[in-house]
Structures are given as structure tokens and as C-alpha cells.
Task: inverse folding
């Protein structure tokens, strides 16, 4: 049997059940009370509740008929904007069931070209009486002004650790898991405000058993513990190149990390080191350079070791 995805199983059905996003939740609850919606633009990073909020609105407004009144589309449908507009037209043609309007949710609106956005705007105009549009994007600045000015803007924030933790605890109870406190710390560290990432990670880890600790989480995501990364950086800055290199190789093998993962973690940890600000600036610059080289396809071991070598020489200047 294929197990249900927890992101779906535990997706809130009601606006009030959304964690965090206080301002968004309050404003949307106000619309629910008046049973009317404007066109809306949901902007914010992945996994923070944009699709969830749109679906919860539809569920609360339309009850069990919600699916008949709700159309979810991906703006970056590879078959093109005309296919998207075609779907909108045929959906909008029929009357809403048990409500005054239907909701069209358009995901990844910022993936549309400017021309496609103008075409979209005309479609929105055509159906203003019978439909409400909710456009979702990561960056509102990529949406053309004529659309922005026709939509109420809602900004979704990366979720706070406590907010992610409260949702994860709900799932831990529901699935009868046992997550250690270092395991929870690891989940929060890796998810970076993205609740989808946190939930998917918990589900992947649970495939190995009910007990979930730090080691398991880092293995599942193929990342090293932050302490291990910091140790490597400090060893390199302290001048022991060979030891830093050996530790890095160990991590790459133990966790199955890629060179890019390693560099990304260096970037995350370097700012936490107790070294002068100007040294951090130089290290960040070097990390940027090696990140670029790796993206360009250079050898991972050679590049990560060259990066450590640079850290050694900067470390000499600090002492
Ligand atoms: N604020 C939240 N409150 C409760 N659950 C959430 C929240 N944000 C995300 N989730 C959970 O994470 C999953 C993914 O969230 P959602 O689909 O709403 O993300 P999104 O903001 O639309 O992301 P994307 O930009 O990638 O489309 C949901 O199924 C839900 O389980
Ligand atoms: Mg979404």
C-alpha cells in the first residue's frame, strides 16, 4: 500500500488552523465573515501556506461542493498560457454552486512572461463578475503592475521555528512517532522556514522507524551536522589543512553530500564563527566563487579542497 503524503493528510482545512501568518489569517477570516473575496496575490517562499490558504478558503466558503467551485492551475503549464486560459474559460462558463462566484487559483504566476501576464490580466477582467482569482508567486515584484493593482496583496513569511515545531508535533502525535529533541533541532535547522520540507523530511525519516534522532535526519537529507561543518571550518582556519580535508572527505562519504551541499552548509555556518567581521566578508566572497565553479560543473573534491586551502590562508591573517 502506498502511504498518503503527510503534507496532504495534515493540510489544514480551515483558515484558523494555518500556523503562523497571523496577519494573512486575520484578513482572510474577515473575508470569510463577509462571504466576499477580492482578487488576491499570495506572495512568499515555498511551503509557507499559500496553496493551503486558497484551498481552505474554498472549503470554508463552499463546504462539500468546494471542488466544483475551485480550479487549481499551474501558470507555468508547459503547454503554454493559451492552454491555461482555455481551462479558465471553460471552468468560468458555468454557474457557481451554492455561492456567488468560483475561485481560480493560479500557482507560480511569477513564472509567466510579461506578455503572458498581460494576457492573463485580460482573462481576469473578462470573468470579474463570476470568478475570483488568487495568484500565487514567490516574488510579487515579478508580477506586472496592472495585475498587482487589481489584487489585494498577501505576504507569506518563512515560518518561525516554533510554528514549524508545533505542526511537526501534531504529526508526531498523529503518527505515534518518537522524535528526540536533537532530532527536532535538526528538522528545524534543515527546513529553514519551509513547512513542506519539514513534513516531508519527517515522513522520509519515519520510513526507518518510529524513533527519529539527529543522525537519522541528517542522513535522510544528505547533510552534515552543523557542528561537523563548523569543526572543519575552524580546523582549516586554524591552519591544519590536511585534517580539515580528511574530515570533509569523511562527511562527503558518510552523508553522501554533494560538493554544492557542502559549500551551502559552509555558507550557513561561516557567519556563526567567532572571527572578525572582515574575515567573514572575505570568506563569504570565497564561498560565492566556489559555489559558482561547482555550478559550472568543476570537480567537487578538487573545488571543495581548494576552498579549504583558501580558508587556511585567510586563517593565517586572523591570528
Ligand atoms: N502555514 C501553514 N500552516 C499549516 N500547514 C502548512 C503551512 N504552510 C505549509 N503547510 C503544510 O505544508 C504543505 C505545503 O504548503 P503549501 O502547499 O500551502 O505551500 P505553498 O506556500 O503553496 O508553497 P509553494 O510556493 O511551493 O507552492 C501543506 O500541505 C501543509 O501541510
Ligand atoms: Mg503552492
Result:
Amino acid at each position: 500500500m502506498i502511504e498518503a503524503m503527510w503534507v496532504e493528510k495534515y493540510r489544514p482545512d480551515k483558515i484558523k488552523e494555518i500556523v503562523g501568518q497571523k496577519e494573512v489569517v486575520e484578513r482572510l477570516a474577515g473575508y470569510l465573515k463577509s462571504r466576499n473575496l477580492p482578487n488576491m496575490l499570495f506572495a512568499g517562499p515555498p511551503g509557507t501556506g499559500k496553496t493551503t490558504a486558497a484551498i481552505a478558503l474554498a472549503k470554508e466558503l463552499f463546504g462539500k461542493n468546494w471542488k466544483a467551485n475551485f480550479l487549481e492551475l499551474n501558470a507555468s503549464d508547459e503547454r503554454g498560457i493559451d492552454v491555461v486560459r482555455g481551462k479558465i474559460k471553460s471552468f468560468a462558463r458555468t454557474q457557481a454552486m451554492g455561492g456567488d462566484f468560483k475561485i481560480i487559483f493560479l500557482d507560480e504566476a511569477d513564472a509567466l512572461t510579461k506578455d503572458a501576464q498581460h494576457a492573463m490580466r485580460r482573462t481576469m477582467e473578462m470573468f470579474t463578475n463570476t470568478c475570483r482569482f488568487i495568484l500565487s508567486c514567490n516574488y510579487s515584484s515579478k508580477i506586472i503592475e496592472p495585475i498587482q493593482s487589481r489584487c489585494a496583496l498577501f505576504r507569506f513569511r518563512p515560518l518561525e521555528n516554533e510554528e514549524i515545531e508545533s505542526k511537526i508535533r501534531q504529526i508526531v502525535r498523529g503518527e505515534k512517532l518518537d522524535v528526540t529533541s536533537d532530532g527536532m533541532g535538526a528538522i528545524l535547522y534543515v527546513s529553514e522556514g519551509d513547512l513542506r520540507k519539514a513534513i516531508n523530511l519527517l515522513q522520509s525519516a519515519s520510513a526507518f522507524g518510529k524513533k527519529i534522532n539527529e543522525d537519522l535526519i541528517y542522513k535522510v537529507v544528505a547533510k552534515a551536522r552543523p557542528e561537523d561543518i563548523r569543526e572543519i571550518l575552524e580546523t582549516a582556519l586554524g591552519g591544519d589543512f590536511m585534517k580539515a580535508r580528511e574530515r570533509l572527505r569523511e562527511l562527503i562519504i558518510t552523508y553522501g553530500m554533494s560538493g554544492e551541499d557542502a559549500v551551502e552548509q559552509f555558507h550557513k555556518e561561516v557567519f556563526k564563527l567567532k572571527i572578525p567581521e572582515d574575515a567573514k566578508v572575505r570568506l563569504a566572497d570565497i564561498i560565492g566563487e566556489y559555489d559558482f565553479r561547482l555550478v559550472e560543473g568543476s570537480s567537487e573534491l578538487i573545488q571543495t579542497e581548494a576552498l579549504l586551502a583558501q580558508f587556511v590562508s585567510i586563517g593565517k591573517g586572523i591570528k
User: Anything to note?
Assistant: The longest strand covers residues 131-137. The domain at 161-221 is CATH 1.10.8.60 (Helicase, Ruva Protein; domain 3).
